[in-house]
Batch of 4 targets.
Target 1
Amino acid sequence: MNPRKILECTDSLEVLPVDQAWLTGYTEADLPVNHIVRHTDYDRYSIISDDAIVTPEALAAVLAAHDAHPDAVVTGYSRLAQDDERVNLTAEPMIGSEIRLMSRDQVRQQPPVFPTYFAGYAFTTATRQVWLNCPFPARGNANDAAQTQLFGRAGLEILAVRDGEVQHVKERWNQGDQDPKKALWVGLIPAEIRWRIHDS
């Protein structure tokens, strides 16, 4: 999901050793995630936004956990913002719209792979069939919450990976970023799908 160009984030994503579809310049409601899944034939797909600094090690940890639990949804995580120690994972089910998030310290005390009831699109990974059965909700916001509910209704186990942390560069939770380099491209450039194919 690529609505802007934050170089320290995009540079870290581009070097990951996997094929990548960059959904550039789309609104959340228009993201063609389902189109990508329907018209390609990869065994599994991971989703992440472009405002995270990532490492190959974090992705490798998530993919290894998915190898061990191929029928589950497996996810990494990030802090909500630089000023917030909460992360996009929960230790208990969501009740309606109420989400009680874990702290980063709580996550660091967990085993390498542990259950969560929220998958916050930080390398959230599932098989092609799971994404077909639980398609990207394409709402205007809170797609991750709606997606998690779809996974839950399908009876899928969601597992978090302790070593799958990515660094979310958002400055303040629930506020727009002030740094001009984080300005959105949406509406300023044509929306397009850009492929980066890993040369293995």
Target 2
Amino acid sequence: MSAKTESKWSQILASASNARIDNARVAESLFIDRSARPAASLPASIATRKQVRNWMRRNADDNESLLAENAVAALNLPQSWLDDSTHWLWDEALAVAESIEA
């Protein structure tokens, strides 16, 4: 058998195999459960650190705790951020409050 004939038969077998696999996938897809998916829940906050910082600068207050509390309320941020003293929210509030005092 020549290389040309072997290559031709190889292509014929590969296309037949691919067609069989494609048909099997189509048949399988007919029985897939297509029920409605539950709605995706939105994240608690979509505000980034930069957006929070900009909001704090626009609504500046020299009291960092009041500034942080107002930012959480206005931007719909998680309340747990106020309880965590190491959260970046407090760093931003302190930086904005100090820039007002200076």
Target 3
Amino acid sequence: MDQISNHPLYKIHNIDSAISSLWDFYKKKFAGLFIISLVMALIAQYFSATIDIKEKKRITDKEEIKNKMKEKNGKKE
């Protein structure tokens, strides 16, 4: 494992050198950072689209909630 002192952002900074150093780091790693953020945004969008908030608010009975969760997981009694 690399030493933390070898990291490109490891040094004493003032505000100008910190922003400059971060900008250089971002420019070098742009493609990877962009792809990771795109994939994570798509995953978050998928999960938020599959959750039906109105249905979840409507259910007040605990047994009904358990049955819905079992249906979602594919389990039957």
Target 4
Amino acid sequence: MSKLPLNHFVLPLALALALAGSPVAAQQITTSHGVRMLPRIQGVTEAPQLRQALVSTEQILDELLQDIDALDRSRSATAGQGTALTETVKRTNLELERAKAAFDQADQRYRDDLAAFGQRQAAQEADVQAQIAQGAALEALPSAQRDINEVLRINEWAAKIGKEREALEAERNRLLADHDRVETERAALAKQRADAEAKLKNSRDGVVGQFGGIEDKRKIAYQQLRTTVHHAEVLRAQLSQVLAGKAPPSPVFDMASAKLRAWESSRHN
């Protein structure tokens, strides 16, 4: 009885091992071109069928690569928006610092003027009390004993105090207006800061949300790429065994494999 050649047993075993990690039923892959079905692998043993299945799989790989390239461009653009947002934050903070510095100067001027007003008011009050005391002492003397020059001096002093009181009243009114202006500017500065922070937060949330959405899509795309690359690897292994040689070169397969390796490497770093 003649013996069967060793490769008679090796080929079915190799095919079984190759198919062990592959899907039995057709798998669904979604690309921007629509829903695609990976060709069935089980039971495919003829070279023409394998070649056709490989062509269909490579077409899906090509669509996935196009989608990933588009997502990578969107990711880069969104990252650019994040960089621009960082610059906007710096510029906004600088504007707020300048506005606050200007407000602080105006507020300090008001406080200095208010302190000076208080000092003038206290000095005038002391002057009033002194004038009243000296006037009362003069009034206490009999009319014949009053020095006319002293009477004139006391009266001129009273007139001077009256003018100073009018000036202080005008200063009080100015300070009241300054107070209202400072408080209005304080509220405006607080609103400017709140509006700026809200605007920046909305922009940041938008960029973060957009970036997160792109990352989710890229993850799904790469997961589908992994599935399709594996599918192509199995088909190429089967075709190599059927042809008793190496499967024909495939630039799209090589590109997809390299892209997948780079992505998986970046996830582990």
